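Hello Y.,

Per our agreement to keep a running log of every chain we model this quarter, I'm adding this entry. I've kept the format consistent with earlier entries: sequence first, then predicted structure.
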Amino acid sequence: QVQLVESGGGLVQAGGSLRLSCTASGRTVSTYIMAWFRQAPGNEREFVASATRSMLSTNYADSVKGRFTISRDNTKNTVHLQMNTLEPDDTAVYYCAATGRIMTRRPTIGDCDYWGQGTQVTVSS
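Predicted structure for the entry above:
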């Protein structure tokens, strides 16, 4: 049984910062590629960021490069997403995901074996 639980979402003004966290159950999860996706109302779920266990391979969506940073604490089976210089277009439900597949490319929705319930991020003007 593997469960992902997100936290850290909330309301912030444009230009502000938030730090999302995702804690995964099971020690095996620490070997998985972890990723963040987001979905705004009326939009498709889209990739945000991902990282391998070693953090030697990371991927970011073009829209968040230079503003968001993904990190991992493998001893705690936790992945974080530091979000800086937030913009109203960043408003969405953010989902944590994990895949046991081995890859260097960014994972797709179909690649992910486990998903969290999501946490709401709202950025006001």
